[in-house]
From TrEMBL:
A Pfam family it matches: Stress-antifung
TM stretches of this protein: 262-281
Keywords, in A-Z order: ATP-binding, Glycoprotein, Kinase, Membrane, Nucleotide-binding, Receptor, Repeat, Serine/threonine-protein kinase, Signal, Transferase, Transmembrane, Transmembrane helix
Molecular function via GO: ATP binding; protein serine/threonine kinase activity
Signal peptide: 1-18
Organism annotation: Phaseolus coccineus (Scarlet runner bean)
Ranges of residues in domain Protein kinase: 319-603
Domain of life: Eukaryota
Start and end residues of each stretch annotated as Disordered: 614-634
Protein name: Cysteine-rich receptor-like protein kinase 2
UniProt feature, compositional bias: Low complexity: 616-634
Start and end residues of each Gnk2-homologous domain: 28-131, 135-240
Length: 634
């Protein structure tokens, strides 16, 4: 629900900010503008980034005659990703002039950590996260002229011109096409289409399709433009580029497979690949006397396994309810028994229609399947079939930690088991952040994502999956992957993501393990406090043992050990991300006898809006702007 509200708010906000007619020169027509309503966390660094970025870009346009560029700058924790594009028909000077207009205009967004301006001739956008491969998102739109053409066949001719552009543009080398189409009666339609050069052909095609559908609604008016995150289309009966600047798109429109030259090369390459595949297939048949059935091609032997959809379907009894293990943030998980008897966990991903995932899926699966650590769940392989994306994991008999803390096994873990889980989880995270060759931020650490094996050792699940999520869909800077009650405030409110966001969530998990209280629950018998606030208050009064779960035998733990662990948890949940320890420091602290004097936790921020508000206690309205950045719970 909240997500819907957020979308609605963006749309309202967008339409208020949509500027239609700031005409200076004809091509400086501002089509759309948007500013993030969240300020960058450190405005000095942010403005310094922006200034440097703009001057770098100006130089690229001026010295290298570039029509497209991206620049990223990092200062401390402030990341700034910027993209600029001119329509290709512009001369260098016109491009530079449009860029200057755009930078002046975009400065009206002031300290907002994301912004975009779209002109007829160019566009400029920056964000605090990488957005370069985004194409379709909230914020797409159309702007039509207000004069209807009097030419009888104009609508039909216009539709054909736009349809051709939509087909051809993704096939061109630089994702750009410009055409002039003659209409009966002597008039003509000029049209351009362009995708950002960092898009993939498929994403460009999807973007063009949306743009084309939108632009159709403008016809038979004499002009219109459609814009989206990654593409732009415009048509007009008034020439806006010279006749000798059109692009011959005929080769891209031929039926069958467009370009003959490519078809021939494709045929030859295809033939070679086919031969190699046949060869690999025969080799693998020779080698594998034991039927394995699920490995594709010899090169895949060391990587993740590509499972066959039908095998997984059979293994999970057609994804039946009785085989369902649970519902995660990324999809349902089923228990599966493969033909060779091996038991696995099969996760059917639900991403909606995310084109971003299409490109990333294979690469990410390969990356994640290379992560080997005893405190991390192994990814065994995957399966792609049309829209379906499925991941296959090692199976954990004991299921997730939340069942042991809050579910049907509540109270069954003793102190030793709990402190082992606390340490093992920290080790797994330290590996993900610091030891694996690519730093992986989990983004959704919570008790439901910590699985326990037969020996009750923890294994973190679902890491790396957040990387598959579509990029930030809006200027609500959060490409949010968190869960209520566990999410670091700077990530929830500003979308600032770092390893320290995981450290924060880990701190909350530790408090839950010690107390047996859910982070979002209010303890009735006390003075009605959420877990973090309660832990902080008890810490201030030195009453550490009060926090410990009543189900644990008091003879099992020492007050010093309890104090140390709670203090570590509070260090992890400190308001400022930079003061939180790294996970390898947490491992060290957990193994040390007691905390050093100088490591006194500072007070956390109590983001009560980060939690489910109680009915009786209406959260103050001043917090309302904060709460819109919180997505619905998974
Ligand atoms: C960035 O540039 C603007 C305008 O040119 C200027 O007012 C501002 O002081 C600059 N900020 C920094 C941090 O350099
Ligand atoms: C770009 O041109 C300007 C002056 O025209 C010059 O000062 C600058 O060094 C050039 N930059 C590069 C990277 O060539
Ligand atoms: C943006 O700022 C310029 C001055 O730089 C001003 O003239 C213009 O009215 C502002 N536009 C909006 C939409 O705020
Ligand atoms: C954002 O920063 C600008 C300065 O660039 C300031 O004027 C404005 O009040 C800030 N807004 C919020 C919500 O902090
Ligand atoms: C059409 O829009 C232009 C500005 O783009 C405006 O000047 C003109 O008055 C409008 N005409 C009609 C008929 O609405
Ligand atoms: C295109 O036409 C314009 C005149 O409309 C001319 O000035 C220019 O040189 C031409 N460009 C090319 C590449 O032929």
């Amino acid at each position: 629900m909240l997500q819907l509200k957020v979308v609605a708010l963006i749309l309202i906000w967008w339409s208020i900010n949509g500027v239609e007619d700031a005409v200076a020169a004809p091509d400086a027509h501002l089509v759309n503008m948007g500013c993030s309503s969240f300020n960058a966390s450190d405005l000095r660094s942010f403005f310094a980034n922006i200034n440097e970025t703009f001057s770098d870009m100006r130089e690229e346009i001026r010295n290298q005659s570039k029509h497209f560029g991206t620049v990223q700058k990092a200062r401390g924790e402030v990341l700034t990703y910027t993209m600029f594009q001119c329509r290709n028909y512009l001369s260098k000077n016109d491009c530079l002039s449009c860029f200057n207009t755009a930078t002046t205009q975009i400065r009206n967004c002031s300290g907002g950590n994301g912004a975009r301006v779209i002109y007829d001739s160019c566009f400029l956008r920056y964000e605090s996260n990488r957005f370069y491969d985004q194409t379709n998102e909230i914020g797409s739109g159309v702007s039509c002229g207000n004069i209807s053409s009097t030419v009888p066949d104009f609508k039909v001719a216009g539709e054909q011109a736009l349809m051709d552009l939509q087909t051809a543009t993704p096939k061109t080398r630089d994702f750009y096409a410009a055409t002039k189409t003659l209409v009966a009666g002597g008039s003509a339609v000029y049209a351009v289409a362009q995708c950002v050069e960092t898009a993939t052909a498929i994403n460009c095609q999807n973007c063009m399709q949306v743009g084309y559908n939108n632009l159709q609604s403008c016809l038979p008016n004499t002009e219109g433009r459609a814009y989206d995150a990654g593409c732009f289309m415009r048509y007009s009966t008034t020439p806006f580029f010279a006749d000798n600047q059109t692009i011959d798109i005929a080769p891209y429109l031929k039926k069958g497979n467009s370009n003959k030259k490519w078809a021939i090369i494709g045929g030859v390459v295809g033939g070679v690949v086919l031969l190699l595949l046949l060869f690999a297939w025969r080799m693998s048949r020779k080698r594998n006397k034991v039927p394995r059935g699920d490995i594709l091609g010899a090169t895949e032997l060391k990587g993740p396994v590509n499972y066959k959809y039908n095998d997984l379907k059979a293994a999970t009894k057609n994804f039946s309810a009785e085989n369902k293990l649970g519902e995660g943030g990324f999809g349902d998980v089923y228990k599966g028994t493969l033909k060779n008897g091996k038991v696995v966990a099969v996760k059917k991903l639900v991403f909606g229609k995310s084109s971003n995932m299409e490109d990333n899926f294979e690469g990410e699966v390969k990356l994640i399947s290379n992560v080997h650590h005893r405190n991390l769940v192994r990814l065994l392989g995957c399966c792609s079939k049309s829209q379906e994306r499925i991941l296959v994991y090692e199976y954990m008999a004991n299921k997730s930690l939340d069942k042991f803390l809050f579910g049907n096994k509540k109270g069954s873990l003793n102190w030793k088991q709990r402190s082992d889980i606390i340490l093992g989880t920290a080790r797994g995270l330290a590996y993900l952040h610091e030891e694996f060759h690519v730093s992986i931020i989990h983004r959704d650490i919570k008790t439901a994502n910590i699985l326990l094996n037969d020996d009750l050792q923890p294994k973190i699940a679902d890491f790396g999956l957040a990387r598959l999520l579509p990029e930030d869909r809006s200027h609500l800077s959060t490409k949010f992957a968190g869960t209520l009650g566990y999410t670091a405030p700077e990530y929830a409110m500003h979308g600032q993501l770092s390893e320290k966001a995981d450290t924060y969530s880990y701190g909350i998990v530790v408090l839950e393990i010690v107390s047996g209280q859910k982070s979002t629950d209010v303890k009735d018998d006390e003075d009605g406090e959420y877990l973090l606030r309660r832990a902080w208050k008890l810490h201030e009064r030195g009453l550490y043992l009060e926090l410990v779960d009543n189900a644990i035998d008091p003879n099992e733990y020492e007050v010093e050990e309890v104090k140390k662990i709670i203090e570590i948890a509070l260090l992890c949940t400190q308001a400022s991300a930079s003061t939180r320890p790294t996970m390898s420091e947490v491992v060290m602290l957990l193994k040390s006898k007691s905390l050093m004097e100088h490591l006194q936790p500072t007070m956390p921020v109590f983001v009560e809006t980060n939690m489910i508000p109680r009915e009786s206690n209406s959260t103050s309205s001043s917090n309302a702007t904060v709460s819109i950045s919180i997505p619905s719970a998974r």
